[in-house]
Write a structure and sequence with these properties.
Layout lengths: L1 H6 L2 H6 L30 E4 L5 H5 L6 E4 L10 H11 L19 H4 L8 E4 L4 E4 L2 H13 L3 H11 L1 H23 L3 H30 L7 H30 L4 H16 L7 H25 L1 E5 L5 E5 L7 H32 L27 H10 L3 H14 L1 H34 L9 H39 L12 H8 L2 H8 L20
Antiparallel strand pairs: 1-2, 3-4, 5-6
Helix pairs in contact: 8-16, 8-17, 9-10, 9-16, 11-16, 11-17, 12-13, 12-17, 13-14, 13-17, 14-15, 14-17, 15-17, 16-17, 16-19
Membrane topology: Multi-pass membrane protein
Keywords: Membrane, Transmembrane, Transmembrane helix
Subcellular location: Cell membrane; Membrane
Length: 550
């Protein structure tokens, strides 16, 4: 990461640069052998391309010369006099820097150093701060020359930067929606569950339909010539197929579990009862979200550095080109793995914190009296044993103070003994919580589709849309995983309570009577009890908790 930041030049991508190695809107250092480099472009924040509509430039396989200007010509300029007048009025010089504006109409080299007439009208667009031609013919050629010649990584990065405002707006929307979903589950009811399920079904069908409609629109658009448009079309097909499969699977699961809604609501109410004894757990996702946002901003900055890593080379006429570094720019896949792994690590720290707090709550002040020795050592093992991480292992580590290998094994053993009446009940609540995450993603993807599709010809917006969807899921997961972790921890503590205690005055249960009553009402628990499970009536006295596996 450090080397990519040092070797890269994200400023070139963020602010745009001219053909002489100057970054627009910045003070620049000179490049050896390029006399027009090293200029102060603080007031010149836009990139203007000379001869953007010249077919000869396209045929030679070279892009037009780029200059840093203070403003784009929004009206067509037909003569050099008009170009000179535009420079004098706006302070925006459209000819090569070596030619003074007073000589635009007098110098014999003006035809070579100034843009070919007429200069088409253009407007600034937040894609590298470029001046985009407004005439249809010139616009099409301009996009073909500048975008089709760029490699895939630069087109992806250009899409991210062009949609940065949209991405930030969608992130704020995701945060608000995730927070609203958190409060929805905090005060859950049967009606709210039915509303969530209905919105998820409508959202999945609508998003799936929009993807197929966009793919149909791309395939029937005869003007689709740009590589960016073709890549968007391929991504639309992939997204449409994936969302269709996900929609079918989720609809099947919803139909299968539709009769468990009342049971799920009761389960979530039990979960909220436990959370009400540790109300500050609901603030934990805010800290996690802030850390995630900081990490994601850092990740995008490093990605930009990877895409711009290169060395300056002086070409004919004093122009500067940047030769990409052969190795570092292909580390994007490693960078992507780092995004997923680090994000999960941050979320894992939250789960460990919530699980530890809930274990303490279960066996101490929140429930009947008793002594409980709880240790949180084992957190250091997170980086050494990532493949053992699961919800139950967090609570097991908090109970026994063991590392995650041992905790995961102990949790699996205790849950297996009680799987007949724990696993099936637990999955109902987790599925509804998962639907809440899906709902956040559906709304976010729909908003992204409407926003990104507006300028689809100039950017590969499928990747930014995928990033928004990924961000939406992780944000929703960071908020709603509090309920998942509490729910899983309660069931593990319940299983440990059954294994450790027998309900006698010497070894009373720690479990809450309401939670025990709920478990008893499930068919699986009644069947398990009929096969010889011990009586689970709680006692008022406390006892010391024994290790999970005896």
């Amino acid at each position: 990461m450090g080397y990519s930041v040092v070797a890269g030049a994200a400023g070139r991508l963020l602010f745009g640069y001219d053909s002489f190695g100057n970054v627009c809107g910045k003070r620049n250092s000179p490049v050896e052998g390029a006399p027009l480099s090293g200029q102060d472009m603080t007031l010149k924040k836009h990139v203007f391309f000379m001869n953007a509509c010249n077919l000869e430039v396209k045929d030679r396989g070279r892009g037009p010369m780029a200059l840093c200007v203070s403003s784009c010509p929004e009206k067509q300029l037909d003569t050099l006099e008009e170009v000179q007048l535009f420079a004098n009025i706006n302070g925006s010089f459209l000819c090569v820097y070596s030619l003074n504006s007073f000589n635009y109409t007098q110098s014999p080299s003006a035809d070579r150093l100034c843009p070919r007439l007429p200069v088409p009208p253009s407007k600034p667009f937040p894609l590298f701060n470029r001046c985009i031609p407004q005439t249809p013919e010139c616009y099409s050629l301009f996009a073909s020359v500048l975008l089709n010649d760029a490699d895939a990584l630069h087109r992806i990065l250009s899409g991210i930067m062009a949609g940065r405002d949209t991405i930030l707006g969608l992130c704020a929307f995701v945060f608000a929606l995730s927070l609203a979903m958190l409060f929805t589950f905090r005060f859950i009811s049967t009606l709210l569950v039915h509303i969530i399920i209905s919105l998820v079904i409508l959202g999945l069908l609508f998003v799936c339909g929009v993807f197929w409609w966009l793919y149909y629109d791309y395939t029937n658009d005869l003007s689709t010539e740009l590589d960016t448009e073709k890549e968007n079309m391929k991504c639309m097909l992939a997204f449409a197929v994936i969302t269709t499969v996900v929609t079918v699977v989720l609809l099947a699961l919803i139909f299968t579990l539709r009769k468990r809604v009342k049971l799920t609501v009761e389960l979530l109410r039990v979960t909220n009862k436990a959370i009400s004894r540790c109300p500050f757990l609901l603030l934990q996702p805010l800290w996690t979200f802030a850390i995630l946002v900081f990490f994601w901003v850092l990740w995008v900055a490093v990605l930009l550095s990877l895409g711009t890593a290169g060395t300056a080379q002086v070409m004919e006429g004093g122009q500067v080109e940047y030769k990409p570094l052969s190795g570092i720019r292909y580390l994007w896949w490693y960078h992507l793995i780092g995004l997923i792994w680090t994000s999960e690590f941050i979320l894992t720290c939250q789960r460990m914190t919530v699980a530890g707090a809930m274990v303490t709550c279960y066996f101490n002040s929140a429930w009947p009296r008793g002594e409980f020795r709880c240790s949180y050592c084992g957190l250091w093992c997170l980086t050494n044993y990532p493949y053992h991480l699961n919800q139950d292992a967090y609570a097991a580590a908090a109970i026994n103070g063991t590392d995650f290998c041992t905790s995961a094994k102990d949790a699996h053993t205790i849950i297996s003994k009680n799987s007949s009446h724990l696993t099936s009940v637990n999955c109902f609540g987790n599925f509804i919580i998962f639907l809440g995450k899906v709902l956040v993603v559906c709304f976010s993807v729909f908003g992204g589709l409407m926003a990104f599709n507006y300028n689809r010809a100039l950017q590969v917006w499928a990747i930014p849309l995928l990033l928004v969807a990924f961000f939406a899921y992780l944000a929703a997961h960071s908020f709603l995983s509090v309920f998942e972790t509490v729910l899983d921890t309660l069931f593990l503590c319940f299983a440990v309570d059954l294994e450790t205690n027998d309900g006698s005055s010497e070894k009373p249960y720690f479990m809450d009577p309401g939670f025990l009553s709920f478990v008893k009402r499930t068919d699986h628990f009644n069947n398990a009890r009929s096969q010889g499970h011990k009586n689970s009536l709680p006692n008022e006295e406390g006892t010391e908790l024994r290790p999970i596996v005896r």
